[in-house]
Design brief:
The structure holds 2 protein chains of 2 kinds. Chain A is an alpha/beta fold. Chain A contains 19 helices and 11 strands. Chain A is 42% helix and 13% strand. In chain A, helix 5 (62-73) packs antiparallel against helix 6 and helix 15 packs antiparallel against helix 18 (400-414). Chain A is globular and about 70 Å long. In chain A, 58% of the residues are buried. Chain B has a single domain (3-65), classed as Alpha-Beta Plaits (2-Layer Sandwich), CATH 3.30.70.20. Chain B has 2 helices and 4 strands, in the order E-H-E-E-H-E. A two-stranded antiparallel ribbon of chain B has the order 1-4. In chain B, strands 2-3 form a two-stranded antiparallel ribbon. In chain B, strand 2 (27-28) and strand 3 form a beta hairpin. The longest helix of chain B has 10 residues, at 46-55. The chains are: A alpha/beta, B alpha+beta. The A-B interface holds A 203-204, 206-207, 354-358, 360-361, 364, 388, 391, 395-397 and B 6, 8-14, 29-33, 35, 62, 64, 67. The complex binds iron/sulfur cluster (2 copies).
């Protein structure tokens, strides 16, 4: 999928709002090297950050020291689930067989551009993190996954992998794979299915704790940003990581901001920065009404909560979610229900087509929303929609329908008065205005078929 | 040891036999796909649940031992 925020990557990366003013502190950020040199080459990377602290041959205590540093840093996964990275490392590290480390750079979220920024601007930080994590796990293979329709991301990865191939910076060999581009293709079990020569669709695990495998070997899937953070923690230490952010949510995070703003792009922010100040930097084009947090399967948050710190826990308290680091700004010159209808339509189209409740339920939800948005007088519309949302929630093999359920429920709550007015036959004047969503996502509000 | 019902949503093709055999525990959504609530199967229904699992043409209806949280 083409990037949502069609900003030039250089421009995007230039925005940095990590709470730093000293050059030394800037060193421990994801995009500092790029800001300083505007160059993604290995020599620049090494000049700026020094060599990654990979283990010496035969150093048996290194893996545990690495895992301990990650644990102490409090790093959590930046792909969506915000799960403690050290726990994930240890779970797979204790399984039998040499694992495979998968770098997830699928950028499945249409409104995200952070994988592109990372792999175009600081690919070696991601690869350092992958080599470090792989060494800690005793992995014998690293696979970087880039969606098949993203030659722009692929180019940066391939160049960087070639630069270090065969050197001491690549103790574990790296290959690049291109799974099909689809919203759910970046889901862990879908990626692993594809790497097992399967269809690349999510698989059903009756017990979600069943570990994923490639052949019979364990596999660990990490988001590109998570690995880049690992490379920083290994170099500068857990305390440098914790020096930014909050006690609960340390470090910086990449946030892709788009929608009704003048400067869409990828921003590196300190965790705990208020939602409002993150958005302020991107210059909203009008008064903000609400923000979609956590991507298309995320959650709307009302502008009344803009003073909420951007971090998993505080956001959850106002119904929001960090997820993969996506914010879409909705101004007062747009209809939240119409945008939600468009999001639902897109998500329905991105179903992997495997599970009945997802295949039939999501289009039904999208239809309900579309008719609501155009103001079809139907007093029962909201109740029916709520019922259908409950029907699809939790009923697929993957969490795709759950994300849609969460996003639609949040819309019915944040835009409750609009929804009621539309159900009573009074649509928004903005319902047919151009959407704030990425062009690739927009479909006609009401299907023609 | 208690048992729970799980439906493999990828395999299920909405034949609905399970709901016919076990209306106490299975309802069908508006598209004909079974809805189960994941709670323990009462002892007197275990035998029927087992049959529903055996009769499911897609082997999508599973009776499993309840696992911890
Ligand atoms: S829930 Fe939807 S997206 Fe997920 S596997 Fe099933 S059909 Fe595919
Ligand atoms: S009998 Fe099997 S295939 Fe039919 S609805 Fe039940 S679970 Fe699905």
């Amino acid at each position: 999928m083409p990037t949502a925020t069609a900003t030039d990557v250089h421009e995007s990366a230039a925005h940095n709002s990590a709470a730093h003013n000293s050059a030394a502190a800037d060193r421990a950020t994801l995009l500092g090297a790029w800001r300083a040199h505007r160059n993604a080459e290995l020599t620049t990377h090494l000049a700026y950050h020094g060599s990654p602290p990979l283990p010496q041959r035969g150093d048996r205590t290194w893996p545990e020291r690495f895992a301990a540093a990650i644990e102490e840093s409090g790093l959590t996964g930046r792909g969506g689930a915000s799960f403690p990275s050290a726990t994930k490392l240890r779970l797979v590290g204790s399984a039998r067989g040499n694992p495979t480390l998968v770098v997830n750079a699928m950028e499945g979220e249409p409104a995200s551009a952070k994988d592109k920024v990372l792999l175009s601007c600081v690919p070696h930080l991601v690869l350092d993190g992958a080599e470090l994590a792989a060494s800690a796990l005793g992995a014998t293979r690293i696979v970087v996954c880039v969606a098949a329709d993203r030659p722009d991301i692929l180019a940066g990865v391939v160049r960087a992998v070639k630069e270090r191939a065969g050197s001491s910076l690549a103790p574990v060999p790296v290959e690049v794979q291109q799974p099909p581009a689809r919203y759910v293709a970046g889901e862990e079990s879908a990626l692993v299915s594809w790497l097992n020569s399967g269809p690349g669709a999510p698989s059903w695990r009756p017990d979600k704790r069943t570990p994923l495998t490639i052949g019979r070997r364990p596999v660990l899937v990490h988001n590109a940003e998570t690995l880049a953070h690992m490379a920083l923690v290994a170099r500068y230490g857990a305390s440098a990581f914790r020096a930014v952010g909050t006690t609960d949510a340390p470090g910086t995070a990449l946030v892709t901001v788009s929608g009704g703003v003048e400067h869409p792009g990828v921003y590196e922010v300190a965790m705990g920065t208020t939602l409002g100040s993150v958005i302020e930097r991107t210059r909203p084009t009008a008064d903000v009404a609400a923000v979609l947090t956590g991507g298309f399967g995320g959650s709307w948050v009302s502008a009344a909560a803009l003073d909420t710190p951007y971090a998993p826990r505080p956001l959850a308290e106002v119904g929001g979610v960090v997820g993969p680091g996506v914010l879409v700004v909705l101004t007062r010159r747009a209809c939240g229900i119409a945008e939600t209808a468009r999001l639902a339509r897109y998500m329905a189209g991105e179903s992997a087509g495997q599970c009945g409740p997802c295949v039939f339920g999501l289009p039904a939800v999208a239809d309900d929303l579309a008719y609501l948005a155009i103001g079809t007088r139907d007093r029962d519309a909201i109740r029916r929609l709520e019922m259908r949302v409950a029907t699809v929630d939790g009923r697929g093999a993957c969490r795709h329908p759950d994300g849609v359920a969460r996003m639609v429920r949040s819309a019915l709550s944040v835009f409750a008065s609009d929804a009621a007015a539309h159900g009573a036959g009074r649509p928004c004047v903005f319902a047919n205005e151009p959407s704030v969503l990425p062009p690739t996502v927009i479909a006609p509000l009401v299907p023609t078929s | 040891m208690s048992s729970v019902i799980k439906v493999n949503p990828i395999a299920c093709e909405a034949y609905g036999y399970c709901a016919e055999l076990l209306p106490e525990l299975v309802t069908l959504d508006e598209w004909g796909y079974p809805i189960v609530d994941g709670s323990a199967v009462p002892a007197h229904l275990v035998e029927l649940a087992r049959r529903a699992a055996k009769d499911c043409p897609r082997r999508a209806f599973l009776l499993q031992r309840a696992v911890g949280p």
